[in-house]
Amino acid sequence: MYATTVLTEFVAQHYLTVVDEGPESVPHSHRFEVELTFRGPELNAHDYLVDIDDAEAALADLADRYRDELLNDLPEFEGDNPSVERFARVIFDRVTDAVTDETVTELAVTVWEDETAAATYDAPV
């Protein structure tokens, strides 16, 4: 199995909606780092798994979409707690719509909210 990983970082804000009190229930910032790991059993005719330019463009679009935003106010989080786990799933859905290389069979999205805490969502594409 081949794997190709690209990453970006940006600052965004959120607050957790299931916490009654405390610092997580008020708006606060994180320097999010997003890792996209594309996987597949074969390479394409150019001997790569995914077009890295397309993957980096998807990352740039993600950074532009979420940089300096309050996640709670965005439609993709409406009705959901904007946890780092939920954020990883939201990003997965956006990336699988944007990067469509036929050699990619799986995608793992890891979102780091600080140096010690991250969540991953991975699934077949």
UniProtKB/TrEMBL annotation:
Keywords for the protein's UniProt record, in alphabetical order: Lyase, Metal-binding, Zinc
A molecular-function term among this protein's GO annotations: metal ion binding
Cofactor: Zn(2+)
Keyword Oxidoreductase in annotation: no
Pfam families, per database record: PTPS
Record-linked Gene3D superfamilies: 6-pyruvoyl tetrahydropterin synthase/QueD (3.30.479.10)
Xref: PANTHER family: 6-PYRUVOYL TETRAHYDROBIOPTERIN SYNTHASE, PYRUVOYL TETRAHYDROBIOPTERIN SYNTHASE
Protein name: 6-pyruvoyl tetrahydropterin synthase family protein
